[in-house]
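Supplementary Note 2. Why include the ligand at all?

Several targets in our set were suspected to adopt different conformations when bound, so apo predictions alone were not considered sufficient. For every target with a known small-molecule partner we therefore ran a joint prediction. The input for FE2/S2 (inorganic) cluster is given below.
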Amino acid sequence: MERDQLIDLTRRAVKLARDKTTDLAPAEHIVPAGNYTSVERHRRDVEMLMASPQLVGYVSELPTPGSYCTKTVMGRSVLLTRTSDGAVKAFNNVCLHRQSQVATGCGTAKRFTCPYHAWTYDNTGRLIGLPGREGFPGVQVRSDGLTELPAAEFAGFLWVALDPGATLDVATHLGPLAEELDSWGIGRWSPLGEKVLDSPINWKLAVDTFSENYHFATVHRDTFATIARSNCTVFDAFGPHHRLIFPLNSILDLDDVPEEQWNPFQNMVVIYALFPNIVLSVTIANGELFRIYPADEPGRSITVHQNSTPLDTSDESVAAGAQAVFDYAHSTVRDEDYRLVAGLQANLESGVRDHLVFGRNEPGLQHRHMSWESWSAVDG
Ligand code: FES
Ligand SMILES: [Fe+2]
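The joint prediction is reproduced in token form.
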């Protein structure tokens, strides 16, 4: 992000902190409890994710030609490769024989031998080896292959479309946010792995936890709230996406410092919600990514949490330090946010109260839900 823009956002954040207020939506917003519990709504949500470009990781997870990684997206296993000409490709990670996963984890490999009966594919997905070929007269070695999915690297991230016949237009999807996301560079920082939360909460309830900081003083009293302000957020919408600035407690110290000496990034956390199911949290030292997916029923979801660091992780102690920060962030989300909202999901499913109310001080939360609703209205 340009320094001018950072300074401008910092000015807005300092003013909110000084006035002990937050950016406000025009009115309160009511959401039916059924949005989190109905089977029909769940089916529509899955359709919405299937139809949307899916950010699945950092470009740094495919650092060189010959690199590969595997991702699980709404129960589907996806294999991503970087081919010899540097292009990113994606495939359903499903063997043509009896549907074993042909690759697991990540690393470097020019070919993938299925662990079940050793059918072998190159990193462009082509079937190049088939032991016991006389058993399969209908299979064409060197012309059959894994089902390819549209894939792209854009703004520092890896993207796929889950429908092989779809067009993947990430530039249009991100609009003016593309350049800003790219400028942070977090997609090119060193990846620190994935941690998975299989949780008894609707996927939207998981996204909601990242959409306001009104809860910091209570839920994160002994963790985030020791460094960040509560109920104080700079909010901006970008089409169906949004950006929140969470000011740190130190931001009021800037009152005594001339603007040209400000180091804005020392005083804020920047949170992006990318439509429909991605959350990015950017600080000076961490590029956290939350990929949040509906699971097999409305009351369950899968969150894949990733983190990247600008530090040099080839130094062991630096790598251990970065992992410790990642562990801390992860356990806070798991033990503070997700544990608490499991109780909300139970209440929503009990049916004793038919709606929730989102305050004027929760503009990000309101914007998430309005974006999801307008997808339903347009595509329904
Ligand atoms: S399932 Fe892959 S070779 Fe048999
Ligand atoms: Fe939280």
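The chain has eight helices and 20 strands. Residues 280 and 289 are 5 Å apart (CA to CA). Comparable summaries for the other entries are listed in the accompanying table.
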